[in-house]
Amino acid sequence: MKQVFTIILLSLCGMTSAQAQTQIIAHRGYWDKLGSAQNSLSSLENAIKFGAYGSELDVWLTKDGVVVLNHDDNYQGVVIQTATCEELSALRLANDEPLPTLQQYIDRAKKQSSTKLIVEIKTHATAERDAQAARETARLIDEGGIAGMVDYISFSEHVCKELIRLNPAHRVAYLNGEKSPAVLKAEGYWGLDYAWSVLKEQHPEWIREAKALGLTTNVWTVNNVERMQYFLSQGIDYITTDNPQLLKGLLTVKH
Ligand code: MG
Q1: How far is the CA of 111 from the centre of ligand 1 (A)?
Q2: Quick check: is 168 in a domain?
């Protein structure tokens, strides 16, 4: 009986503290395959089939309040924040898909339970638009019933603060790289998600410090073997990569 309780306790600890093994996040989806494109539904489909822990995506709020996917602030010269959803619907990705809406991503994600959405809310023109984007994104995710399958990330403090204010249980990781783990912890963040150069060259102590504080650790965008091996050796929780297959190979060899 005592052994059973110990196993349950260890399982619970595992759910709330650092991952035992580094997990793979497909950057902008698993897009580097024939017929796919960054931030497309196809790239999400590939990430799910691959079995990634997470599929990262970038979202913007359009002028008329629709949350859509795109990395840059414009697509083919059309600025997302000042365009309507209808104007954007005429555009096509490299694989001929329209730019997806977040709702389409939610609808696909909820049909499975193995791959999370790692939702990056982009930095908009004003703090108020950032907060609006955060509120609308969280509303869609909550109403879609997939709150438990979403981690939030952003370079914008306005986005992150609004997400944490809306619900302190939101899992929010900061991208911009200048806040120490102690500051992130004090501000209610779930974790850090920093550039590889920050965590390997500028502050190699931050992974250890973050773990000691109970924060999650994620690094972007790690595409070569040497850097992957470095972060695996540091026991980082998540690696965000354009090359999920390469990382899976290293994890298979390691374990
Ligand atoms: Mg991104």
Answers
A1: 23
A2: yes
* CATH code, 84: 3.20.20.190
How remote is the CA of residue 120 from the centroid of ligand 1, in Å?
A: 5
DSSP, res 101: B
Residue 119 alpha carbon to ligand 1 centre in Å: 8
- Tens digit of each residue's pLDDT (9 = 90 or more) over 77-104: 999 999 999 999 999 999 999 999 999 9
Residue 236 lies in a domain: yes
Residue 13 lies in a domain: no
- Amino acid residing at 193: D
Q: Name the residues around ion ligand 1, CB cutoff 5 A.
A: 58, 120
Alpha helices in 35-173 (DSSP H): 41-50, 85-88, 102-109, 127-143, 157-166
- pTM of the shown model: 0.92
Name the domain count of the chain.
Answer: 1
Q: What is the pLDDT of residues 134-155, one digit of tens each?
A: 999 999 999 999 999 999 999 9
Instruction: Read off the tokens for 52.
Output: 């990634």
Other CB atoms within a 10 A radius of the CB of residue 17 amount to 13
Q: Is residue 161 situated within a structural domain? A: yes
Domain that holds residue 181: 22-254
Task: Tell me how far the alpha carbon of residue 153 lies from the centroid of ligand 1, in angstroms.
Answer: 8
Say which residue the tokens 């052994």 belong to: 3
Rounded Cα gap, residues 102 and 231, in angstroms = 31
Alpha carbon of 227 to ligand 1 centroid (Å) = 19
Cβ–Cβ under 8 Å, residues 88 and 80: yes
Distance in Å, CA 11 to ligand 1 centroid: 31
Paired strand residues for 58 = 120
